[in-house]
Q: What sequence folds into this?
């Protein structure tokens, strides 16, 4: 697999850190002199006076994975936290609110965590009229709250502001015991990779926008109809608003060894990040990509996204889960059971192989 260009922190919210790592400091600021021993993603060591320190069993997780995990000083507990935010992605403000909520929750779901506490981040655009604000903002907040309640929690606070862009996001936090989350580092040879939603949301949303852009539409109209684009767009919105909470719970039931959610870096970038976290020498070789209907053809015809190359970004995407071989088929059968409601899916992509 080709190397991913950047890695993410807490759902890509801190991706810029990777771009500046190793770069020179601004004029007049010498970081190496005063802060040469500072490691912002590592918890401080044990105090010699109190003998209290972070748990040695579960190291902190930082750059590269979906959530940060920080061992706390007392009780063998860990703080698991993530944050993310979005500009307007779809036309429906209610769906946009649900999508923003579901996307951030997936960072915790990728660690098998199904309960957390929430803060909401909301920025209203200066360019919106008062009438637009009064109509759009309540719908976004309602979608956000409805998704949060579906996830078994509630919005307990947050921050609102006005700036040039319409933005919605959240902070998700939980303090838990080590057995309540699944660290993303235990894949073994013979494991099976399972995906919980089809790929192609970025392509579907873009194709829908191109219906009003003749220059773009002319490049893809020979491989897809307007009706097919509308169907793909509706499926993409439904998928983005669907929580991965059921899959997170089943990760414990079926003894998952590792997982990540697929968002801004595409399935290639996120699977590479997950692969690098493994304690054993393994390779993820993906043979099967479930894709929203017609979106692979749109990606190829447009010359954009690289959907079948694994580089197309997803929003509120799928979980990629490493399961024991004997459990993978049972997981796929269980997640589509009617007792969990509609909209849950799963596909087997490949087997984890030996390698580095």
A:
């Amino acid at each position: 697999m080709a190397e991913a260009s950047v890695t993410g922190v807490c759902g890509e919210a801190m991706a810029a850190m990777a771009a500046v790592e190793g770069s020179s400091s601004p004029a007049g600021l010498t970081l190496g002199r005063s802060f040469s021993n500072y490691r912002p993603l590592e918890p401080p060591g044990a105090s010699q006076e109190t003998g209290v320190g972070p748990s040695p069993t579960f190291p902190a997780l930082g750059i590269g994975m979906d959530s940060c995990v920080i061992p706390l000083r007392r009780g063998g507990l860990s703080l698991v936290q993530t944050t993310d935010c979005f500009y307007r992605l779809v036309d429906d403000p209610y769906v946009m609110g649900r999508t923003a909520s579901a996307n951030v929750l997936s960072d915790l779901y990728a660690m098998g965590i199904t309960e957390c506490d929430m803060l909401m981040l909301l920025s209203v655009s200066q360019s919106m009229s008062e009438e637009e604000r009064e109509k759009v903002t309540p719908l976004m907040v309602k979608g956000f709250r409805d998704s949060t309640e579906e996830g078994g929690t509630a919005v307990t606070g947050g921050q609102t502001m006005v700036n040039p862009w319409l933005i919605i996001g959240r902070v998700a936090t939980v303090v838990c015991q080590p057995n309540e989350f699944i660290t993303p580092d235990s894949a073994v040879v013979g494991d099976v990779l399972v995906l919980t939603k089809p790929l192609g949301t970025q392509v579907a949303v873009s194709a829908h926008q191109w219906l009003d852009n003749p220059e773009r539409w002319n490049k893809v109209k020979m491989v897809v109809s307007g009706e097919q684009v509308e169907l793909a767009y509706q499926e993409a919105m439904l998928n983005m608003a669907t929580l991965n909470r059921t899959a997170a719970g089943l990760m414990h039931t079926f003894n998952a060894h590792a997982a990540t959610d697929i968002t801004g870096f595409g399935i290639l970038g996120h699977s590479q990040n997950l692969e690098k976290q493994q304690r054993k020498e393994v390779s993820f070789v993906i043979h099967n990509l479930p894709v929203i209907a017609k979106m692979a053809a749109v990606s190829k015809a447009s010359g954009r996204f690289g959907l079948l190359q694994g580089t197309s970004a997803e929003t509120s995407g799928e979980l990629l889960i490493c399961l024991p071989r004997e459990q993978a088929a049972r997981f796929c059968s269980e997640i589509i059971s009617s007792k969990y409601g509609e909209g849950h899916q799963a596909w087997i992509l490949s087997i984890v192989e030996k390698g580095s």
In short: Residues 93 and 272 are 33 Å apart (CA to CA). DSSP finds eleven helices and ten strands in the chain. Residues 1-58 have pLDDT under 50 and may be disordered. The two ends are 11 Å apart (CA to CA).
